[in-house]
Design a protein that fits this description.
Length: about 325
């Protein structure tokens, strides 16, 4: 009796992607996870957060945006449609990982985790609309999108590695410094959502509830967290040179410093120019790039070499020919 193949197993039996294809699929999912954050920011910055009146439909009577909803409805509905593009990218990654030979179950699990986060964030996005852009729901929506970027970055990195146990490339104290930098960056991103939640860009032209914090004070707290991350990044760059870390690891630390410098510059300019929409959008993109850069530094401190088949001993080889 023949076993019934699942759709993924059926595709895997007829298609074997190259390792480059698997890496490209993972990179596409990561790219789309960043794009969805930036376009979501564009929805808020154009005041289109309630362009679609409800969810999952755009209005009570229409699945798509109507002419009466104007440009705001088109922008909000367009962002919703990009979720399908994101799902397609994540789905491609899952199929490529499942079809690779040998089958790497770890990559498949990471792909399904991405899909689960996308679905969860779609539901949270609907709750955000139905609660009239509650700022806490908006913040949660962004943080869940950041968790998607986290998993997508790890997946992309894992496509370049094997499935053996991770082994360190630098001393233990350096890895602890990396964990500290990761924690500080999480605080930085969370503080950024409070700045947004108490700031002037509510996401719609109507009266939207804001977080009950002084915007200027929260912005200064956010800046202090940013300086802490910068200090840790400089310390990481210096320490990696002292311990003679691998060249690619030092390059990741250098890239992080460059991204932080650009992000800090944008942040200060937007603060002193009354947060213009274009700079806020650039700052949101920078937030994603900073987080990816911090993750890449942490991931470069360990390695997972591809498993190599053992070479039989000469005596065993002779026996095998008898």
């Amino acid at each position: 009796m023949r076993a019934v193949l699942t759709p993924l197993a059926y595709i895997a039996s007829r298609w074997t992607p190259s390792s480059r294809t698997v890496r490209r699929a993972a990179a596409a999912a990561l790219l789309m996870s960043v794009v969805i954050v930036v376009t979501g920011g564009a929805v808020r910055l154009t005041g289109s957060g309630l362009g679609c009146d409800t969810w999952p439909k755009c209005t009570d009577d229409s699945l798509v945006a109507t002419r009466e909803q104007g440009i705001h409805g088109a922008i909000e509905f367009g962002n919703r449609m990009l979720t399908y593009v994101l799902c397609a990218a994540v789905g491609w990654g899952i199929i490529a990982a499942r079809s690779a030979k040998p089958w790497r179950r770890s990559l498949t699990r990471l792909g399904w985790l991405q899909f689960a986060i996308v679905m969860g964030n779609a539901v949270l996005g609907g709750i955000t609309v139905m609660t009239g852009l509650n700022p806490y729901s908006v913040a949660g929506h962004f943080l869940l999108a950041t968790s998607l970027i986290t998993v997508a970055t790890i997946t992309w990195q894992r496509t370049r590695e094997g499935d053996t146990d991770a082994r360190p490339r630098v001393p233990g104290p350096v890895r602890k410094l990396s964990w500290t930098m990761l924690a500080a960056t999480v605080v930085l991103i969370a503080a950024g959502t409070i700045v947004t939640g108490s700031g002037p860009h509510a996401g719609d032209s109507s009266e939207i509830k804001r977080m009950p914090f002084d915007w200027s004070t929260t912005a200064h707290v956010h800046a202090v967290a940013a300086w802490l991350v910068c200090a840790l990044a400089v310390a990481m760059w210096l320490v990696l040179r002292v311990v003679d870390a691998p060249a690619d690891t030092r390059a990741r630390a250098r890239d992080l410093l460059i991204v932080l410098l650009a992000q800090g510059g944008i942040g200060y300019v937007q603060f002193f120019t009354k947060v213009p929409e274009a700079l806020v959008a650039a700052h949101m993109l920078g937030s994603c790039l900073v987080w990816i850069a911090v993750l890449r530094v942490a991931l470069s401190l360990r390695e997972r070499p591809a498993a190599q088949a053992e070479i039989p001993a000469q005596g065993d080889a002779q026996l095998s020919t008898v």
